[in-house]
C-alpha cells in the first residue's frame, strides 16, 4: 500500500505561523562578514542558509520553528511500499521571479546540477541514494537515471537503495529548484544574481555594504511573508550592531550577542524578554587534516583530543554550552550516553606524541573565523596544545576564507566555531555524510579533516537503508557504533555543544522559535513579523 501526503494542510500551517494576512514593515539585520553566495547548490554556511531558503523553494520544507516535515513545491507525494520510489506532484502555478512557472524539468535539472562534479557542490553526496549517482558524480554520465519527468507537474525518483533520510534531503537547500535559463545566463555569478520562487526576491547587493530582499508579490503562499523588505547590512562589528539595536536602528544582530556583553545584556531587565534562547543540534569541533603530516598519524590526533581543556573553552562563552565527547550532540538520536570520550590528560597526550616520534612536538597552523569569540577560543586551544609541545600559528580570517581553506584541503587544523555543524535535518546521518563521510572529502566539501573510512561509509548506508519505523532503535544503535569508531580514528576533537542565543528589537513579533529556528538557521525570515508596521 502506498503512503500519500497532501500538501494543503501543510501550506496552511506555514501561513498560520506567519500570523498576518498582509505583509507589512521593514527590518534591518546586521552581519560582520559579507555573504559568500546565494546559490543553493553552493551556499552552505549558517549565514546564507536561511537567506537562500527565503529566495528558493524545494519539494519539501519544515513547519516554521520545528523539525516537522511538510510539502513545499510538492502538492502531494507517494512512496512505494519498498521505499525506493518517490513520486512528487508539483503545485501548479508557482512561478520563478522571472515569471516562468516551475515544472518537473526544473526539479530534475536542479538536482542534477548539484550532483554534476563541474558544479563542485558541497551537497552532492546528499543525493547518493538516487539511481545513477555514482555514474554522474564520477563524470561517466550527464544525468541521473533515477530521475524521471513523468509529466510537466510530476517527477519520479528511483533510489538504488532505501533511504530513511530522502524526504529530509528534499527539504535542504541543495534540493531547492532553480531555473536553467538563469543559471546559464549568469554562469558562475548566479550566486550573486539568484532567481528562485521563494517568499523574497533579491533586489540589491552592494558588496561589502548591504543586501536587500523584497517581498515576492507573486508568492504562492497566502499571507507569506509578513514583511515587505529586509535589509542585511554587512561589515558591522557585533558590538556596534548591539549598540545600534539598543538605539532602535537594528532589529536583529545576525552574529548574536557578543560574548563580552552577554552577561550585561542578559541581566538587564530592559532586554529580559527580548533575548531568545533555543536548543540546537550543534557540535563545535577542531578538524585535523588526515592527509597532512603529522595528522596522518592517529596517535597525534588522539593526543590533540586529550590536550584540550573543554571546560575552560565553555567558560569563554559564558557557559552557553556543554563539553562534547563525540560528534553527535546529546539530543540527537544515536548519541551514546555512556561514552566518556578522551579525558583531558596532557601527560597522556605527551606520551602519545612521543610514541609517534614527536617527543619534541611540532609546528602547525589552525584556521579560525575572525568573529568574536572564535579568536579567543582558538587562543585557548593554542595554549593547551603548546603545553604538550604543539606550536600553533593561528590564521584568523573571514568566514568565507576559512571555508575555502577547509574545502580545498590547505588547512591543517580548523576551529569550526562560527561555522560549526548545526544539523541540516534532525537525523544522525547528517552529522556523518557531509562532514565525516567520503562524499564530503572533496574539493569544496565540508569534510575538512578529509577523513574517508569506506567501512564506515558502508555501515552508514546500511543504517540509512533502515526505513521501517520498527527498526528505529536498531538504526540508532548502529549510528552510535559508527560515531564511536570515528572517535577511535579521531579526525576531530569535539569541543562543545552550544545553545543558541539571539536578541531582537522591541518591535519584532512572532514566536520565539522563529528566531532560533532549528532548520531555517538562524532566523525564519518568511514568518517573522514587526508590530509597528505602518
Description:
The longest helix has 18 residues. The protein folds into three domains: 173 residues, Alpha-Beta Complex (Dipeptide-binding Protein, domain 1), CATH 3.90.76.10; 110 residues, D-Maltodextrin-Binding Protein, domain 2 (3-Layer(aba) Sandwich), CATH 3.40.190.10; 217 residues, Dipeptide-binding Protein, Domain 3 (Dipeptide-binding Protein, domain 3, Roll), CATH 3.10.105. The strands form six sheets. Strands 14, 15, 16, 17, 18, 19 and 20 form a seven-stranded mixed β-sheet that branches. Strands 1-5-6-8-7 form a five-stranded antiparallel β-sheet. It has 16 helices and 23 strands. It is globular, with a radius of gyration of 23 Å. The protein is 28% helix and 20% strand. The protein is α+β, with helices and mostly antiparallel strands and 534 residues long. About 3% of the residues have low confidence. Helix 9 runs antiparallel to helix 11 and helix 15 runs antiparallel to helix 16. It comes from Bauldia litoralis. It is found in: Periplasm. One of its GO terms (cellular component) is outer membrane-bounded periplasmic space. InterPro entries: Peptide/Ni-bd (IPR030678), SBP_5 (IPR039424), SBP_5_dom (IPR000914). Keywords: Signal, Transport.
